[in-house]
Amino acid sequence: MALTALYDLPAPAKINLFLHVVGRRADGYHLLQSAFVLIDWMDSLHLELRRDGGIGRVDLGAALPEDDLCLRAARALQQASGCHSGVQITLDKRVPWGAGLGGGSSDAATVLLGLNRLWGLHWPRQRLLEIGLTLGADVPFFIGGRNAWVEGIGEQLTPVPIEPRRYLLVKPPVAIPTQAIFSSPLLRRDTAPTTMAVFLADQDHFGVNNLQAAAAAFSAQVDEAIELLERHVGPARMTGSGSAVFACAGGNPGADDGSSDPGQVLATLPQGWIGRMCRSLEVHPLHGWAKD
């Protein structure tokens, strides 16, 4: 029996354990090195088949931009596959946007993975990855579905074993435009390239986020969030281009080792700030929905 709907599809966020800018291409794109880790802070999507070929979206929370990555992903797959079916997307947005957590890219990846099944395409992962890259540099990571060592402009992914961790995340209200960060004179673009082996030797203390100084200059709330986490938890840094920051809050996601008191931290957040205790994921919940 053909599918007519898929409900409660997860779209997990990610954090950058570090983010180095190691150069810049002639076309202006920045060359990066990073380690992306999936976490259990997730949006939820429902996909309902439309026979008229139309593609639409309903927001359960605050209204998103009219033409977001979800809709662009569905249209791109429809055009590439020649599928005559459409989809009604219902999005329950839980991951804050403008946070450096990859929420929009993850939503797009979940749409591609879900429609691959709902429309009966059964495409291999590589074909979905090619479409994902046209939507944004982070989308292929979520389609790949495993924690990764990331290079290039974000499109070169190598699965990497990341030790299970708990992370306390804090997102201040400010939304930082990515373009403002990458055009900032404070952005360092000449960090020496490193290797995955060096990172794996000391995952918890490796590297920095080269975007953090520019983001902190844009808004003092970034430094305020980092200082709050460092006061209560330990060393903290920004993820992506911000404004969310995180600190490791324990080595075993299944245990409370007393290394932090997340309830105390979250209770001290100023009005309008968002915080959450998250656990790292080894694999995307929908990883098996596309074959390698």
Task: Give an account of the 3D structure.
With 292 residues, the chain is an alpha+beta fold. It has 2 domains: 155 residues, Ribosomal Protein S5, domain 2 (2-Layer Sandwich), CATH 3.30.230; 114 residues, Alpha-Beta Plaits, CATH 3.30.70.890. The strands form 2 sheets. Strands 1, 2, 3, 4, 5 and 6 form a 6-stranded mixed beta sheet that branches. Strands 8-9-7-10 form a 4-stranded antiparallel beta sheet. Helix 1 packs parallel to helix 2 and helix 7 packs across helix 8. The radius of gyration is 19 Å and the shape is globular. The two termini are 25 Å apart.
Q: What is Rg?
A: 19 Å
Percentage of residues in DSSP E strands? 25-35%
Counting DSSP E segments of at least 2 residues, the number of strands comes to 10
Number of helices: 9
End-to-end distance:
25 Å
Helix content: 25-40%
SSE order = EEEHEHHHEEEHHHHEEHE
Shape: globular
Which regions contain 5 or more consecutive residues with pLDDT less than 50?
A: 253-258
Architecture of the largest domain, according to CATH?
Answer: 2-Layer Sandwich
Query: Any idea of the CATH topology of the largest domain?
Result: Ribosomal Protein S5, domain 2
CATH class of the largest domain: Alpha Beta
Biggest sheet statistics? 6 strands, mixed
Mean pLDDT: 93
Protein structure class: alpha+beta
Instruction: Please tell me the total number of domains.
Output: 2
Précis, in short:
Helices cover 28% and strands 28% of the residues. It is an alpha+beta fold and 292 residues long. Strands 1, 2, 3, 4, 5 and 6 form a six-stranded mixed β-sheet that branches. A four-stranded antiparallel β-sheet has the order 8-9-7-10.
